[in-house]
Automatic annotation (TrEMBL):
This is Alpha-N-arabinofuranosidase. The keyword Hydrolase applies. The keyword Transcription does not apply. The record marks 152 as: Important for catalytic activity, responsible for pKa modulation of the active site Glu and correct orientation of both the proton donor and substrate. One of its GO terms (biological process) is carbohydrate metabolic process. It holds the Pfam family Glyco_hydro_43. The lineage of its organism: Bacteria, Pseudomonadati, Bacteroidota, Bacteroidia, Marinilabiliales.
Amino acid sequence: MKYFQILFAIATAFTIPLQGFSQTFEFDNPIAEQRADPWVHKTDAGTYYLIATVPEYDRIVIRKANSINGLKNAEEKVVWRKHEKGVMGHHIWAPELHRIDGKWYIHFAAGEAENIWNIRMWVLSNPADDPMEGEWKEEGQIKTRRESFSLDATTFEHKGKRYLIWAQN
């Protein structure tokens, strides 16, 4: 126990307060009622976009506002709807909105209309400057080495290299 006390004392002795470097950020919860798996994207211009799972699991909607609190009352726009048959026909879950190399992408999970638990990852793209405008194109399934239940894909860049991570059974 004494070892951990000494380690804690050393670690905190070299902690530098960052007052003046941090920004106070406040918002009122909930930002959106009846929305699961929320994802907020803030552009360099300060525009906020909210995308999340809707209770019917049948479409992808986006909200846009000039502040995070503004998302609460922002109008939603349906940008994509599930297929009536086949793939992407059920359980439209966990959409994420990303701006990559000047293009918008939505990563999301979806099951088949006839086999609702056959959930896989999918991608939509849109070249418009604003993801609430333009046409969303189905880019297809994100294929993995194993063809099994997969969802919750997210992407990020680290040291100039783009990565995609997800959950898979």
